[in-house]
Task: structure prediction
Amino acid sequence: MAPASSDFTSIVRLEGVQKYFGAVHALRDINLAIGRNEIVGLIGDNGAGKSTLIKVMTGVLQPSAGKVFIRDREIPPNYSVRKAHDLSIETVYQDKSLADKQPLWRNFFVGRQVTDRFGFIDIKREKELARNILLDVIGFRGVGITVDSTVSKLSGGERQGIAIGRAMHYNAELIVLDEPTAALGVAEVRKVVEFVRLIKNSGRACLYIEHNLAHVHEVADRMVVLDRGRVVAQISPKDMTVAELTEYLIALQHKG
Amino acid sequence: MAQRHGVLGLLSVEGAPIFLVFVLILALFMWTSPGVFLAPSIYTTFLTIVPPLVLLATGLTFVIGAGEIDLCFPAILSFSGFIFAVLFKEYNLGWIAVIAGLASGVMVGFINGVLIAKVGIPSFIATLGTQFFWTGAASVLSGGKSYALRGAEESSVWQWIVGRPFASMSTVDWVQGLSIQALWTALIVGFLWLVLTRHRFGEHTLFIGDSNDVSRVVGIDVDREKIKIFTLMGALAGLASIILTLENKNFFGNQGQGYLMTAIAGVLIGGTSILGGRATIIGTVFGCFVIQILEPGLVAAGLTGSWVRTVQGFIFLVAIIFYMYVDEPQRRVNLLARLRSIPAFGGARASPTRASE
Result:
């Protein structure tokens, strides 16, 4: 169960976060907050520090300096992926979230299995819960996918849907999506965009990392632009069209 | 009701192809050598001989299911067999010798696991190295001697591990010959089947075989689970070595020879994927049965022993191709595409040119 304290303003807040990899200054003085039920698009060129930033937020990497707050509380020093899960922050990686040859029901519960005290899995219960996630949370109806289907039978968009559905099942309050539409066809991208809307409508927050500006522009409440390790702009989709945003980013590249 | 259907469905699928192959081969041998294969005593003998192979292949099913390989277990058959034999015979330690034999297998397996998971050596290389090391160690320590365990059948160790519980209860030959190691093996393999299909550890094994990256992201401690898998393999190889040594009433330095390829073949014929992520213990058991039945079958049919390996190799290759076609439609498509593309791209002609350069 997610810690149900309701008196916080931002789900994650970074204050003066720095990250060095040896001599490389990957994140420079990052100040950023993600509000509750807010969809934040994170954009920027390759190497701008997008991945590093989400890794610091989700416990994969420790910041070199600065503070990270979750629900307005400073994070403990032993922050890890497991701890992030406990604090209901889930990450959906582009192609590292599901195991191909395993059935969906195992993919939903692996790492957090429903077991007896000897560690034997309650298969009946897991399948039942998985069926609920599939039908009620993600809304996969009549598409020929059951909990016994293996992941390899799914399309790219369906995979993202399954991974997002899993995150929602675990009551994540912040779901980090790492380029969910990369290498997907047009119809598949539509599905993923719908899943992001689903996140918004269910009252959760989402940090959405994306190369395709049109997709971010469509779903984000706010877009954060990262350039060479710095947050250089925070833009509302209402203030800029996709074309203007593209112009702006190109100009940014040519600036010093 | 739905679950009952699921369990029956699973049973009818898991290992079904290889079970069918086993039945067909058995029927063939019954036709070629009815005198041997329609009498019960061949099956009693079979159940006496097959346990070490089945135990090894069951451990290997976990290892290969996790996308790794173990080449070291023949060395455990030698090393643990030596530890057991020397303590049992020279020091008369009885059950302590059994525990020491098992412990040495566990230790070798654990070291393999650490080399692979913590030091990061690919399992093929790591276990190739440890196989040389422990085979060498066994031969240095034993001085190349073999140990004949004469009179071992008087001991409680022999009675409990490889005894013939019905020897005095029955007057029928084949009932007297029924060996208790078949029962132990069946219990252990049944338990490990449960572990692989419905325990957290089995699920982690298959996820690791599928992808180490995904496994880490979903919170599996990949290193620890790999160490556990290789330790399990070591323990099973240790037990196999004790059964083998007691059954033969003899230890000799290269008693592990011949098990490497047969165990791997048993696993892969059974339907476990060499790429990891998919594994079946029921398949492995019948895969071992197929491999093991060929020898008496071919010899009884009048072929020489040299034919056994040839036929085993042939069945092995046919099985691999079969699984590629039936179980992995994507690979089937890729293979067909490649076959079709060779003439189109002139690939058949290009490769000899490249080879001659």
Remarks:
- The longest helix of chain B spans residues 222-248.
- Residues 2-342 of chain B form a domain with the ABC transporter involved in vitamin B12 uptake, BtuC fold (CATH 1.10.3470).
- The mean pLDDT of chain B is 87.
